[in-house]
Design goal:
Blueprint (H helix, E strand, L loop, with lengths): L17 H36 L1 H15 L6 H7 L12 H7 L4 H40 L1 H5 L6 H6 L3
Length: about 170
């Protein structure tokens, strides 16, 4: 019976406990089906995992095949002038996708750049203002000595230099 003998007469099941044998036969058939389906699911899952593990590589391989198949569209002269033969591997990426992966847009980069430029300008302006203040104080010291005041001929007094704004 286990190897496919389905006769229900006395030779197949025997004479004792025929209803029990029917129950045992149906139970073993259902159990065998469940085990075989489980095995099938395991094989398919393993194949799926293997395919997913090399999916990115297969995608790049397919893209390279498409490029090599359509290479005849690019003129030979332009191909030779593009780069040295067998020297470089050229790879193009989608910048929008690359920025989306890093969750940073071009606008955010521009805002950060503008902020850095503003900070640098403010620092440079503060340094220039400090130097001008220092030079202004040196000029006041020279004018305070009196020797340079007479050289100016009185056309520009001490107060006009002090009151000037930068």
């Amino acid at each position: 019976m286990a190897l496919g003998d389905f006769s229900t007469d006395e030779e197949g099941f025997g004479k004792i406990a025929i209803p029990f044998m029917w129950i045992l036969f149906i139970f073993s058939t259902v159990l065998n089906m469940i085990i075989m389906l489980n095995l099938l699911i395991a094989i398919i899952s393993e194949s799926f995992a293997n395919i997913n593990s090399v999916a990115k590589q297969a995608s790049y391989r397919e893209r390279a095949n498409i490029i090599s198949e359509n290479l005849y569209l690019v003129p030979k002269k332009q191909r030779k002038n593009y780069c040295e033969h067998n020297s470089y591997l050229l790879m193009a990426i989608d910048t929008e996708q690359e920025l989306a992966e890093h969750q940073e847009t071009i606008d955010m980069k521009l805002i950060a750049l503008r902020n850095r430029i503003t900070e640098t300008n403010d620092k440079q302006f503060a340094k220039i203002k400090k130097r001008m203040k220092k030079q202004h104080n040196e000029i006041l010291k020279l004018l305070g000595a009196g020797s340079t005041l007479s050289m100016l001929g009185g056309s520009m007094g001490r107060n006009s230099i002090i009151d000037s704004k930068y």
